[in-house]
Amino acid sequence: MGLSKLNNLYREVILDHADHPHNKGALKDATNAITLNNPTCGDEIDLQVKVGSDGLIDEIGYTGYGCTISQASASMMTEAVKGKRPDEALAMAKIFSDMAIGKDHDQADLQALGDAQVLTSIMEFPARIKCATLAWWALQRALLKDTDEEDIDDQG
Length: 156
What we know:
- By secondary structure, the protein is an alpha+beta fold.
- It has helices at about 5-20, 70-80, 85-100, 105-110, 130-145; strands at about 30-40, 45-50, 55-65, 150.
- The protein has a four-stranded mixed β-sheet, with helices on one face.
- Helix 1 (about 5-20) packs across helix 2 (about 70-80), helix 2 (about 70-80) runs parallel beside helix 5 and helix 3 runs antiparallel to helix 5.
């Protein structure tokens, strides 16, 4: 597939998740939750995770607002980690964060991210990296129960 066609496919996947978000909505009985903000562009995510007695992420939901990239990334992230153990989800968040800063991963790691792997094309635009990673950072903080609200700019 040509690069132009591949980029168009990536755009379509991103727009589909932004226009038809998966798992958007607040959970009432979350076991883990956090709110993170990206003051650079005004993105905000309120993430709720429910880890069941089986040790799996049974439910995950989010509310908030932001640009197309941040909303699509949140949708992709929730789909990718639902049904996973928290340690698996944290490993996936690490892979995504590494990918965002240009670290190489093998194809199996990227495929584990599901649709979120298409966001590798966004990483060519440094101003969009925080938009794409906001939901993944929220996932890490929620699962680690580091629930102090803060702006992602405060994280260094």
